Amino acid sequence: MLWRIVRHGLRPHRAALVTIVALQLVSTIASLYLPNLNAQIIDEGVSKGDTGYVINTGAVMLGISFLQILASVYAVYLAARTSMSFGRDLRARIFGRVGEFSAREIAQFGAPTLISRSTNDVTQVQMLVFMTLAMMVGAPIMMVGGVIMALRTDAGLSWLVAVAIPVLAVTVGLILRQMLPRFRTMQEAIDSVNRILREQITGIRVVRAFVRERFEQERFAVANTSLTGASLGVGRLMAIVFPVVMFVLNVSTIAVLWFGAHRVESGEMQVGSLTAFLSYLMQILMSVMMATMMSMMVPRASVSADRIGAVLDTETSVRIARGGGSTALARPASVVFESVDFHYPKAEAAVLKDVSFEALPGQTTAIIGSTGAGKTTLINLVPRLFDATGGVVRVGGVDVREAEPDVLWGRLGLIPQRPYLFSGTIASNLRYGQPDATDDQLWDALRIAQADDFVRDMDGGLGASISQGGTNVSGGQRQRLAIARAVVRRPDVYLFDDAFSALDVSTDARLRAALAPVTRDATVIVVAQRVSTIIDADQILVLEDGRIVGRGRHTELLETCPTYQEIVVSQRAAEDQLEVTR
User: Fold this and answer.
1) Is residue 493 within 8 Å of 413, Cβ to Cβ?
2) Tens digits of residue pLDDT in 22-40
3) pTM recorded for the entire structure
């Protein structure tokens, strides 16, 4: 998976890769040639007292060193730029794929892990790419070239190279083998910390309302301790690697000096050659050490790549029709359910069973039922947040699975049960529904949504700041702004998913009265808990256990539907009890 992701990500940067390899080759050849020149200075210049030879050869060494510096600096610069571009593109791919996910895939992964995969995991792979381009391209060349040059310098000491490299490689390999499962555990622990932290921040009001701060601290402490333990396990193994490398490096140096000194004493080797051989051995072992550092990064990057690949390889359950889908949605658009079933993945029972109805333009279709009856699920099938597992959902006469997504979504105005506002201003949030809307259109939508009064009172009006999630406005204000956002679009189909629940009765009544002229020619589907909200609906559907058990107007259902009668009676009883309490 790691190789596949890296190969795909670096494909647009082939020219930069070729340049980096060429620069690394120049730098490596220069590094390999310098010890040979140094040996010539010692053996041919210093030993014979030839000052001119020393100066001339030294000047050549300076020139080669300057060339090596230029090649190395530019190679590292290109490696940094290429790896940063690789990370940018990979994050964009993940973001694009997550943007295609339906609610099913989002729930399958969870927001915390998707965030950590887009940030922490991408960073791990990106750093591996950088280190590979900056170091590992030259390391094999240095290793092979160093062996060749060492053999040319003195074949009698080459057995030291043959011993040192395998010992170092085998020892480090055994340590790295233990790292992979620990890195996987560490990444999962990071996910757990992110999940708990996100839950605590998002649900801070609930935590404080139930005085559960101590419990949440303990829960976070468990996850934090788990992450610390996993990190320490990896750290201990990493702490072993460098002493092992340095031990082999130092022993090899001592061995070269010891055996080389005997060869110099016997006349089989010159002092300059011994110095050059020692330099080549150091270059070989340093290359092995660089490879070791890279090997330490590979297990963690491999785990991260697997996690990234799991996101990129997951296909959305909401598939786009071949050829782009139909754009021939009738206008005004009706919404038709034909024998629709829906199962959540791995659920034992269906949430919706054989649901059939028709919501016509110019009419309001209301859906009511007990908690868990499937009302929100039903609404979510229209904009394809989920796809029906059985039957057909049609908008404007076209199966939503065969419709062009942008065309379908452009005809719909969804006000979800939990409205979400983005960080920015009131105007930017309202224009989310219609980017080219004028200020007059925004104010008109706010007036219809009964939100113009409190917006005028806010500092800046339409330019008033909105925090992420709309946390600086009340629940009722957030709900009205979400309604205004949908109204700005003037869609063919309005989908109100319990969108009036945070409003008081008088505001609810005024808002519905203001909406009536705007939605006169549109199809309106309303999910509601309060009977008073839907009492004037043209068609009321009563859901129970995923089935439609009642259909008709308010007065008809009072006579024919026991479930609806129970809902009405229970709400009236609750209102009467409230009056008595007052």
Assistant:
1) yes
2) 988 888 888 888 888 777 7
3) 0.70
